[in-house]
Amino acid sequence: MMVSITLVLFVFILLGRTEAISNSGCGITKQCFSFPTGCSVTSSSCLFISYVYNATDQSFLFELSGGVGSGSEYVAVAFTSTPAMANGDLYYCTGTEFKSGALQVRYNAPSTDSTTPSGVVQLSAASTNGVGECTFTRQASITKIVTSGSKTFNLVTDNFFILMATGSYNSGNIVKHSAANRFFTSAVVNFTTSPAPVTTPSPGTTQPSSDLTSGCGSTKGCFRSPPGCSTQSSTCMFLSWKYNSASKTVDMQLSGGMAASQYAGFAFGSSDRMQNADLYYCTASAVKSGAIKGLQAAPVDTALPEGVTNIQAGTNGGVVQCSFTRPASVTKDLSAPNTVIDISTTTYYILFATGTSLAGGLSYHGQSRVASTRSIDFKLNEDIGGTVDSIDMVKAHASLMMIAWLTCASIGVIIARHFKPLFHDMTCGGEKVWFQIHRSLMVTALLATVIAFILIFVNVKGYSVKAGAHPIIGIIVTCLAIINPIMAIFRPHPGEKNRVIFNWAHWFVGTAAHILGLTAIFLGVDLAKLNLPEWDTWVLVGFVAFHVITEVILEILSAFHGHISAYKKTPKNSMNMDDNAADKDQPPKGAGIKYFILVVYSLGNIGFLITFIVFIALH
C-alpha cells in the first residue's frame, strides 16, 4: 500500500502538480461536495472537497480548496460521526501549508498534529488569487486523539459526515471558524461508492411544455399531495410511474420544491414511516440516490443503482422536476444489508418530502412530507393522494400546553399564594372562593396537559428522539400534573400531624411541574415542526420576567400590609387547603392594589397567551 502511495507522490513531484483543482470530473471520476452548491473552485467563497477511492490499496486521493486570503486564513475538512464540530478527523490548507489535527470539544478551536500522521501524504499546497488548494492521500484507516480518547476513522468500513469551514490562521494555529463559514453534509457519506452520474439537462428539458399530471390514472400511475394539485406549483408533491413488463423497468417522474434552493425526494418504504426505505431525490441539476435505514436516522447517500438510465433533472417555472428509468428490482443496504426492493412483486408505501438542498444533498424536511395511505402496486396505473403529517395536532398540542402552564398554572399559583387572605370568609358552592378559583384553574391545566400529551403522541406515533429534551420534560410534567390532584384527594384533614408533610409535598410537586412546564415550552417553541420566528424565545423571556416582577411586587405588598401572617406557617407558593387558613376579618389594607395587580397580571398573561397562539396558528 505504501509503495502505491509513494508512486503517486513521485508522479506528482515529477509533474510539479501544475494542474489546478477543478470541478471537472465531479460525479464521473470523483465524488465532490461544494458549498454553496455547484460553486466554482476558482471563487474564494467556494468551499470544495473531492475524493477518489483506490480499492486496491484502500487509500483516498483528496482535493481541498477554499478562500485563504494572503495566507492568513485556512480552509478545513473534517470527518465526524455526528453533524457537530467535535470528535473529528481534521485536515486544513492555508495555500502554503497542509496540516492535520482533530476536532475536540464543540465551540473550541481544534488541536493541531505536531506531525502529519503516518498514512497521510501531502501532494501539493498552493494558492492562486486568494484560493488555497491542497491535495493529499490518506489511508482508509487513521487514528486520532479526540475528547473521548483514541478514535479510529476508517472511511472504508464506516460512514461519516463531511464538515467544512474557513477561518483565521495565526502563527501555525487555526482559530475557530465563524458560524457563517461552515457547512456539513445532511447525511453520513459512504466513501467507497462509485461517483454518481450528474446529468446537466439541456434547455429543452429544463422547461417542459406540459403538466406532468397528463395521463394520470390512465397511461401511468400518479401520487400527489394535495390531491389533484398541478406540478406547476412548488407546493405540489408529485410522483408518477409507468411500469414496462417487457424490460422490467419503471419510468419515474418527480416534481416539487423551489428550484433555487430545494430538493424533491421520494422513497419506497415497507411502512408509512421514514425507515427501511429506498430513496431517490433530485435538485435542479442532479438525480441522486440514498437509503433510509432507521426511524429518525439521517439518510445515507448511495450511488445510483446499476441500471438507472434516462436521467434528466431540471426546472419548470421554478419547480424542481426530474425523471429517470429504474429497474424493477434493485438491492440496497437498508435496515438489513443487501435488501431487495422489487416493485414488480411487492407493494410499497410512497414516502415523499421536500426540503432545503445543502451542498447538493438533503437537509431535514420538517413538515414538508407526505405518505401514501396504503401500500401501492406499481404495476397499476392509479391516481392517488397522500396524507400530510398534520401540523394541526402539533399546533393544538403547543396551544394547550401554553394555556395550561403559561396561564392557568401561573394565575392559579398567584391566587393560592397571595390572595387567600383577601377573600376571608367568602364562599362559593360550600368552598372558599380562593380555593374554587385555584382548583378550577389547576383542573383546567391538568385537562389541557393530558389532552395535549395524547395529541402529540398520536401525531408522532410514539416518542420523538429528534425533539431532544422536550418530550422527556413533557412526560415528567404530565406525570407531576396527574400526581398533584391525586395527592390532594387523599390529603390529611386540617390539624392532623401529616398535614404539614402534605403541604410541603403539594407545594414541591406543583412548583416543579410549573417550572418544568415553562422549561418544556421554551424548548418546544424552537422545534422545527412549529416553525415559529426566531425571536419567540425572547417573548417567552419577557413573559417570565413579567411573572417574576408581579410575584415580587405582590410579595412586597403582602409583607408591607401584614398579609404574610395569614400563610406564614406554610411554605412559599404552598397550595394549603386548610379551611381555617383564611383571615376571618374584613379585607386587610392593601387589598385594592393587590386586586388591581391581579387584574393587570391576568390581562397581560392572557395577552402573552393570545400572541403565542396567533403565531402558532399562522406559521
In short:
The protein has 8 helices and 30 strands. With 619 residues, the chain is α+β, with helices and mostly antiparallel strands. The strands form 6 sheets. It has a 12-stranded mixed β-sheet with strand order 21-20-19-18-26-27-28-15-16-17-23-22, with no helix packed on it. Strands 4, 5, 6, 7, 12, 13 and 14 form a 7-stranded antiparallel β-sheet that branches.
Write the topology of this structure.
Layout: H1 2-15, E1 31-35, E2 47-54, E3 59-67, E4 73-80, E5 88-93, E6 98-103, E7 111-112, E8 120-128, E9 131-139, E10 141-146, E11 149-154, E12 161-170, E13 173-174, E14 182-184, H2 203-206, E15 221-225, E16 237-244, E17 249-258, E18 262-269, E19 277-282, E20 287-292, E21 300-302, E22 309-316, E23 319-327, E24 329-332, E25 339-342, E26 349-356, E27 369-372, E28 383-388, H3 392-418, E29 427-428, E30 431-432, H4 433-460, H5 469-489, H6 499-524, H7 536-560, H8 591-618
Parallel strand pairs: 15-28
Antiparallel strand pairs: 1-2, 2-3, 3-9, 4-5, 4-12, 5-6, 6-7, 8-9, 10-11, 12-13, 12-14, 15-16, 16-17, 17-23, 18-19, 18-26, 19-20, 20-21, 22-23, 24-25, 26-27, 27-28, 29-30
Helix pairs in contact: 3-4, 3-6, 3-7, 3-8, 4-5, 5-6, 7-8
Protein name: Putative ferric-chelate reductase 1
Domain Cytochrome b561: 359-560
Cofactor: heme b
